[in-house]
Amino acid sequence: MRDETQRDQIPPEEPQRPETGSIALTSSRAVAVAFLFGLLIGWFVVLAANALGALSPQVPWSAPIALLLAAGLVGILAYGTHQRIQVRRSFVEPHRAVSMLVLGKTAALAGALVAGGYLAFGLMFVGRWEADIPRERVIRSAVSVVSGIAMTVAGLLLERACKVPKSEDDEESDSPHR
């Protein structure tokens, strides 16, 4: 009996609302750090190959082409997401929006990392431009750098396309006059 009366005296807990969080947009600092890490990795690859007496790897044409295709797909996704969220203000399922946001962040940082890596790799061979193989490495690295930058830009655009515009209710609550 006593347990029943104690249960009656305990007020029922209010259902807890999940906290609404937000994810910050990728900062220019994060992109710059990824680019610098890429520079270090690209430079280290050439130094390690030279130290081991091995040939530095060739840059296949498939690398910049794959990067450009990926950047194009992310760019198309950014455009579609922008149209859906910003222009038409359609509902997007939360898990889908978060997935797009994560893809945008990943593309931006990976593009910066790859661009930095190929830049350092290509710069290591600029001094030997007269020879065919180093010239090929420089040219293909330069195209890969441009592809990496395109991937970074597309990722940042997708990330910003996921930003939910303020609703009229939000704008009214921000105004000092109610």
Automatic annotation (TrEMBL):
<feature type="transmembrane region" description="Helical">
    <location>
        <begin position="138"/>
        <end position="158"/>
    </location>
</feature>
<keyword id="KW-1133">Transmembrane helix</keyword>
<protein>
    <recommendedName>
        <fullName>DUF3180 domain-containing protein</fullName>
    </recommendedName>
</protein>
<feature type="transmembrane region" description="Helical">
    <location>
        <begin position="30"/>
        <end position="55"/>
    </location>
</feature>
<dbReference type="InterPro" id="IPR021517">
    <property type="entry name" value="DUF3180"/>
</dbReference>
<keyword id="KW-0812">Transmembrane</keyword>
<feature type="transmembrane region" description="Helical">
    <location>
        <begin position="61"/>
        <end position="81"/>
    </location>
</feature>
<dbReference type="Pfam" id="PF11377">
    <property type="entry name" value="DUF3180"/>
</dbReference>
<keyword id="KW-0472">Membrane</keyword>
<feature type="region of interest" description="Disordered">
    <location>
        <begin position="1"/>
        <end position="21"/>
    </location>
</feature>
<feature type="transmembrane region" description="Helical">
    <location>
        <begin position="102"/>
        <end position="126"/>
    </location>
</feature>
